[in-house]
Amino acid sequence: METTKSMRQKRVADDVIAAMLSFVKAGSFKGDPKLIHETIFDLKKRYPELLEDFAFSDPEHDVYPLSPLLERVLSRLQLSRIIRMENPDFETYILKLRAKNYARKNILSRFNEEEQRQLEAMAKEFEKEVRLSK
After folding, report:
1. How many C-beta atoms surround the C-beta of residue 57 within 10 A?
2. 92 has which bridge partners?
3. Are the beta carbons of 23 and 125 closer than 8 angstroms?
4. What is the rounded distance in angstroms from the CA atom of residue 114 to the CA atom of residue 117?
5. Who's near 132: CB < 8 A, 6+ residues apart?
6. Residue 94 contacts residue 27 (beta carbons within 8 Å)
7. Apex CA 89: angle with CA 126 and CA 63, to 5°?
8. Block means of pLDDT (10 residues each) for the chain, length 134 residues?
């Protein structure tokens, strides 16, 4: 059986965001980069271990806290079809059930039970901030 340390070594920043998104209940969320970056920036304050790889620009000296890594992660998640932008104005990310199930089956096992609880809590906070208006 693998140790927690070796499990942690095998996961990357993409896994953290994909695993978190697997807990998002909605099938879509706002694609506003500013909103997404600010939300992950705020989540990092409460979940520093899970989001330790994400460095952000200083919000005092930038338009918003920007993470180049988060930009790359979102791009890779689109390329791998975990998230999609199917709308013409690129305002909404689509998160299909099939993609969530894939992440749960193939990525979630890289996190221990406590981390999975934290990812679920992060997803609730993330969804509250970026959900589409009903």
Report:
1. 15
2. 30
3. no
4. 5
5. 26, 28, 29, 30, 92
6. yes
7. 55
8. 53 97 95 96 98 94 94 96 85 94 95 98 97 70
Burial of 113 (0-12, 13-18, 19+ CB in 10 A): exposed
Tokens of 52: 């330790």
Question: Which pLDDT score, from 0 to 100, does residue 9 have?
Answer: 52
- Spatial contact of 37 and 23, defined as CB atoms under 8 Å apart: no
Residues in the chain: 134
User: Which positions ≥6 away from 4 have C-beta within 8 Å?
Assistant: 112
What is residue 89's predicted lDDT score, i.e. its pLDDT?
A: 78
pLDDT in the model for residue 1: 45
CA angle 67, 68, 70 (to 5 degrees): 65
Question: Across the strands, what pairs with 109?
Answer: none
Tell me, rounded to whole angstroms, the distance of Cα 105 from its chain centroid: 16
Q: Using alpha carbons, select from 56, 67, 85, 70 the residue that is nearest to residue 12.
A: 70
Residue 84 in 3-state DSSP?
A: strand
